[in-house]
């Protein structure tokens, strides 16, 4: 079971990484800043990336709950969610960004790929 969760977490993080790089690099406008401030006032948890499949699922569930009430776009979900990565998870994300930007990865499909499909093993690569 642990191997399956490892693969699911890796697939979810890969999907997020691939999607973020496909978005154009544009500055955040005032609405985006206000949305991020609202997101942060809901006290989202951080994810440190350590081996903890149950913790990863709990983190994703809690962050998605905030997204539902905020009615975030798919792009905002990825940006705000990755903002909550810390330590090992953030190091991984920062190291992957240049590769993704070079490949032109798109954010549009991330929410669907990172949703419960991933943790149930149904997410295509």
Largest sheet, strands/sense/barrel: none
Structural class: mainly alpha
User: Which percent range describes the beta-strand content?
Assistant: under 5%
CA-based shape: globular
Which ranges are low-confidence, i.e. pLDDT below 50, for 5 or more consecutive residues? 108-125
Tally of helical segments: 7
Average residue pLDDT: 75
Which percent bin holds the helix content?
A: 55-70%
Rg, rounded, reads 14 Å
Count of structural domains: 1
C-alpha termini separation: 19 Å
Order of helix and strand elements from N to C terminus: HHHHHHH
How many beta strands in the DSSP annotation? Answer: 0
Which structural traits does this protein have?
single chain, 125 residues, mainly alpha, 7 helices, 69% helix
How would you characterize the overall build of this protein?
The chain has helices at 2-21, 30-41, 53-70, 74-83, 87-103, 110-114, 116-119. It is built from 7 helices and no strands. It is globular. It has one domain. It has 125 residues and is mostly helical.
Please summarize what this structure is.
By secondary structure, the protein is mostly helical.
Secondary structure layout plus pairing:
Blueprint: H1 2-21, H2 30-41, H3 53-70, H4 74-83, H5 87-103, H6 110-114, H7 116-119
Helix pairs in contact: 1-3, 1-5
């Amino acid at each position: 079971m642990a191997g399956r969760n490892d693969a699911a977490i890796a697939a979810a993080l890969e999907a997020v990484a691939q999607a973020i790089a496909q978005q154009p690099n544009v500055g955040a406008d005032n609405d985006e800043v206000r949305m991020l401030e609202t997101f942060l006032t809901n006290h989202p948890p951080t994810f440190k990336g350590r081996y903890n499949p149950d913790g990863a699922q709990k983190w994703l569930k809690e962050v998605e709950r905030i997204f539902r009430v905020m009615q975030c776009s798919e792009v905002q979900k990825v940006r705000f969610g990755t903002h909550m990565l810390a330590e090992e998870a953030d190091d991984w994300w920062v190291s992957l960004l240049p590769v993704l930007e070079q490949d032109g990865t798109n954010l549009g499909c991330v929410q669907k790929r990172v949703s419960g499909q991933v943790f149930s093993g149904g997410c295509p690569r």
